[in-house]
Amino acid sequence: MQGIEQAAADLRAAIASNPGEHGTGLVQFANTYALKSSQRHSAVLLKLNWTKAADEEQQHRVLQDMLALLEEIVADSASGTAGGEPPLNQLIVRAQEHVPEPPHDVVFSCENLGKTYKKSGFQLNGVNLQLRFGEITGVVGENGNGKTTLFRIVAGELLHDQGSIAYPLFGQDSAAKKGINWIKVKEQIAYVPQELPKVYGKLEEMLQYEAAIHGIRGKKNLREVDFIVQRLELSEHLEKRWKELSGGFKLRFALACALVWKPKLLIIDEPLANLDFKAQQVVLRDLRNLAESLRYPMSVLISSQHLHEVEAISDQIVFLDKGKVEFNGPKEQLGEERRCNTFEMLVSCKEEELREHLRRLAPQRIQHSGVSYVVTLPLAVDGSRLLRHLLECGVEVEYFRDISRSIKQLFH
After folding, report:
1. What is the pLDDT of residues 352-391, one digit of tens each?
2. So what's the pLDDT on residue 20?
3. Which backbone phi and psi does 125 adopt, to 5 degrees?
4. How do residues 68-123 score in pLDDT, each as one tens digit?
5. CA 225 and chain centroid, separation
6. Which residues of 76-101 are buried (b: 16+ CB within 10 A; e: fewer)?
7. Interatomic CA distance for residues 29 and 4, integer angstroms
8. Is the distance from CB of 317 to CB of 327 less than 8 angstroms?
9. Where is pLDDT greater, at 76 or 333?
10. What digits encode the pLDDT tens for the residues 179-221?
11. Please, what are the domains in the chain?
């Protein structure tokens, strides 16, 4: 608890002396330590409320609410976690709140979905998938294996030529006589492609426009735009033009445009590529919170080469290899039928020495990725036994990860 208590003490003093400047600090504190998504949401609103406070009385109320929220987060953390800054997979795990689960309505489904490109000969085929409210589906695979093709089909930008698709929540089915009303479907889907389209004009005006064309107007329009701007930390960039933004802030702005009108399905292709580590964590937490929102739940379909991060927030995984589905199911099923264990490690010795040290454990394969080793061992050899053996051999282990039940194992 020492880490969070010290951070809280520092922030408490900073907020009391200058709450206007340290609203961002409260948001960051909530993102790091809050166990409840509602607390992270409240931190953003309080930061926004301070900027909107009309007089000293209103500012005083906001200040008291900031300090009260800070104490609430500390108290919850004391009873709900061992203390210190939790790792990424704990930060973005579903908040353990005593509230009903969001409705798991099927937003999209497909059976034996496929698409053939006649010129290149590439085929995407055999995709069976259901996307539900409150769930995040991660699609992984090397580049050129069909991820973007699948996303464009689900988003209604590309027609499939095999199988059937449906949007049950919107009452649309390709097998119906009238087919799919794509206007109705696309009104509920936000698609953020890997190659972001250029935006013209001021960014704030574009956000207001996106909200307005989806029926959010008047004071509610301004309120929703203000909220998403604060949530994604875009306030300092609203007067800029598109060409003045870095790659990371272009993505944040594209996400803001997609989220300001609360779509039912968010499709986002390679969102983490241009983000630093801190920004990645914020985006991933936001996606988890948005998917599980009780008031505006959504389904999220995401692809990324950042395998560990996608694995941490996804409920189900689809692995595509040369257009074919090699795995499709809950991430808990990864590695259930494996016949060996696989480990990724960075060690101090050379490959020849490592092979000699591991000979007694009967390794099935030892590969070097250019940075680390990937070692496959019999199922009887678990991580603790391998680490103990390496230490007994005098091998210094700088990095170690059991990927036997990880997405990464699918790539080996």
Report:
1. 999 999 999 999 999 998 889 999 999 999 999 999 999 9
2. 59
3. -150, 160
4. 888 888 887 776 643 444 444 444 444 334 344 445 689 999 999 999 999 999 99
5. 21
6. bbeeebeeeebebeebbeebeeeeee
7. 9
8. yes
9. 333
10. 899 999 999 999 999 888 888 778 888 899 999 999 999 989 9
11. 2-86 (no CATH), 106-333 (3.40.50.300), 340-411 (3.30.70.980)
| Residue 290 in this model has a pLDDT that exceeds 50 | yes
Is the pLDDT at 38 greater than 70? The verdict is no
Amino acid at residue number 180:
I
Cα 10 to Cα 5, 59, 81, 327, 332: the distances in Å are 9, 20, 21, 47, 39
Helix axis angle, 247-259 relative to 218-231, nearest 10°?
A: 140
As a whole number, the mean pLDDT across the chain is 85
161: left (phi over 0), alpha (psi -120 to 50) or beta: alpha
Cα–Cα nearest to 53, from 28, 20, 27: 20
Query: Nearest-CA neighbor of 301 among 102, 111, 132, 125?
Result: 132
